[in-house]
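Exam prep: given the inputs below (a chain plus zinc ion), describe the expected output before reading on.
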Amino acid sequence: MLSADFGHLADSCRMVNQSIAWSIHLDVMDGVFVPNISYGFPVIQAIARYARKPMDAHLMTVEPSRYYERYRELGVEWLTVHYETCPHLNRDLQEIRRLGMKAGIALNPATPVSVLEQAVYSADLVLVMSVNPGFGGQAFIEESLEKINRLDRIRKEKGLDFLIQVDGGINDSNARILYENGADILVAGNYVFKSPDPLAAITAIS
Ligand code: ZN
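Solution:
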């Protein structure tokens, strides 16, 4: 929803509800972990009133654990925190699950997949950032493909079933190769909301 028209959020929600999208993805930025501030609880509350898809929140915020309960109360079903913001990541994942949400881990472009060797056992989802977090509309970082492939291999080797989500610079020219390398969910902002036909854009990358 980062790329949606904030003056017409209800319309944007209705469009996503009608589409074949997996979720409504919420990019929360605090201006500390990332150099931008996006939106917070009042806006998520407004989106929740219209959302008929699961809300999937991606927290680009420091000390995210201060607010896990708040996200749960707002109806968020999938909560993803950054590896780089959680020195006690296992505790964070456990807490998110204890509250009844699915727990995701996000990795910045420079963070290797190897740091998740243990954490993947406690994750429902791993999000590979394919741009540097902070802004919409950036170009896809090609090395992300290798990370997706590596995560898919770890998932098979360990017999796990976490989902692999990719966020940043997604469009109809890279979607197929991402799925072929193991991605399950692609997050798209600008590609969808700047399209003259957002519903068709979602179908084109699904
Ligand atoms: Zn995101």
